[in-house]
Amino acid sequence: MLTNDSQGVYRQDKHGRLFGWKKGSISHAGPSKEMDWYGTAGFGGQTTAGMRANDADSMIGNAIMYDAVNGKILTVGGAPNYQDSYATANTHIITIGNPETIPTVTMINSMAYARAFTNGVVLPDGVVLPDGVVLPDGIVFITGGHAYAVPFTDTTAVMYAELWSPATQKFTVLDPMAIPRTYHSWALLLLDGTVINGGGGLCGDCTTNHYGCRILQSCIPVQLERKPDHETGDQIGVCSEGDCRCQIIAVMNTSVTSFSLMRYGSVTHTVDTDQRRIALTPGVSGLTVPSDSGIALPGCCSYSILQAHPVLLRRS
Question: pTM value?
């Protein structure tokens, strides 16, 4: 689990990317370049899970489980050392299967910006990009971070957010934000499909403390009366008022294309391995939630119902 951080053991074990999984197992996806399986039965156990392809240690990067049913984890960015180190834009998909087996790791298209101390949030499907392209399941929103990792500063802050599509495995750069979101910042998905992003700094009386937060809007038509010029938010999508107005449609009409559970996240130092997207399968008698508690991890979830247009019909 330890990285080869230049500050030694004080930093080497920071911010593990740990995902609860099948049969009481835990997948360790980083930040060290070597991955692991941990067992919780009896006195516990540890088994190597191989290397994260050719990636180096990626301290203060991020990992997001965007497709829990298929064991898909997206890893982004990070740096070889916790501080005074250049970040990378490296991106990988880790596919975990049965516990104590070697995951499949695929290096894919990099982010547009190298990032350390970056936040990642998995979204329900149906996001519309500024160019009007409709993205499918498990979109991941990446925001904030540094190009050169130095805690308690806004130097080299990355102001542009990005959206990642599992279908194309590519990133799209969005409009810039007004406030840097770096060390100690956080981001969470809200019930209406928007993302709340805030914080940064927390260094006493220094000039880089950011106590507020903003609502980051994507162009998702929702059932709530909220227009794209929401007074509290940065706008990350460009669309007309008519496109984004509330559309109320019968939940079970034939245009509904997908259902998912979105497990609530909790963030510390930009790491949020509590969040996960769990696709639901519709059947004659209703929706089927995976019976394996390692996939449908216990905890608080919301559900999303979307149609092909796309319209976010309901989240609650």
Answer: 0.84
